[in-house]
Amino acid sequence: MMNVVLVGCGAMSKHWLDAARRIDGLAIAGLVDLDADRAQARAREYELSGVVIGTSLDAVLDQTKPDAVFDVVVPAARREVALSTFAHHCHLLTEKPLADTPENAHAIIEAARRADRVHAVVQNRRYVANVRRIRRFLDSGAIGAPTSIHADFFVAPHFGGFREEMRHVLLLDMAIHTFDAARYMVAGEPVSVYCQEWEPASSWYRQGSSASAVFDLGGSKVFTYAGSWCADGFRTSWEGSWRIVAERGSVMWDGHDGLKAEVVAPGREGLFDKTTPIEVPPLDPTDRVDGHLGIIQDFMHAIETGAEPETRGADNIKSLAMVFAAIESAESGRRVAIAKEAM
Fold this sequence. Notes:
Pfam families: GFO_IDH_MocA (PF01408), GFO_IDH_MocA_C3 (PF22725)
Low-confidence stretches: none
Strand content: 25-35%
Mean pLDDT: 95
Domain Gfo/Idh/MocA-like oxidoreductase N-terminal: 2-120
Domain GFO/IDH/MocA-like oxidoreductase: 131-251
Protein name: Gfo/Idh/MocA family oxidoreductase
Organism: Mesorhizobium vachelliae
């Protein structure tokens, strides 16, 4: 049995607890929140009888001595939670983003390394079925090597709360999902970015609700991102809408179930090479999916076997580096190189 303390009992904790109660061999030993009543309410909602409730993570860890911590706090509190977790010799699975600053991200990863604990991030877009299928399809070489990756993200949620007050809200809070998915699907390593942010007149956010970015992902691969948190009408999926162009064809995904590809065929019609549809194979039995559930299971497997989780912090920081470089570019108005040291 793996005992876990969950810290941060806000709305996002429901996704974690929904997944956790589906996993045999996982027990929630404690709930921590600055608001003890909120933690108590979560315990009642999920019928967690006997769970330790507290407002101090250190105190609850001392009392429960768990194997791991689930971190669902706001990003600004993530470093403090991580250092406390590792000081108590616990493994750590954290909500995205890994940290709120590059300095904090590196401090967390270094603390995990020194403590020799598993540290992973809930970068759950990797665990979407069609993201897995696209990566496997591109790896097969059926349409050649990818050259251009294009993603649109246009939704208009009224969250209320901290998101509507934070700076760089789209880039820092949401874009990392799309950035990480792009990096994963085409096996890219970020090299540089040019980004622009703006605040439409109709926006209800403080700053940074809309952004456009162009990344060099190395190996002659360019990734363009266009997104907005306040674009009413023709809403995209939360996964975005994608077109990936390769040497001999393209694959398109609407972010829902619409996934299709075409490959260049012999012959030409006027100015254009002929193309023909090509099947994107279904999921492979080894593909890990199911969002939070899949990531928690991967995290537990890593602890039990000594393997590295796919979304380990030491790799996820590359996607986070894309976020921070995009923010720097938006603030400076110039192209920003993404140094190896930043990752």
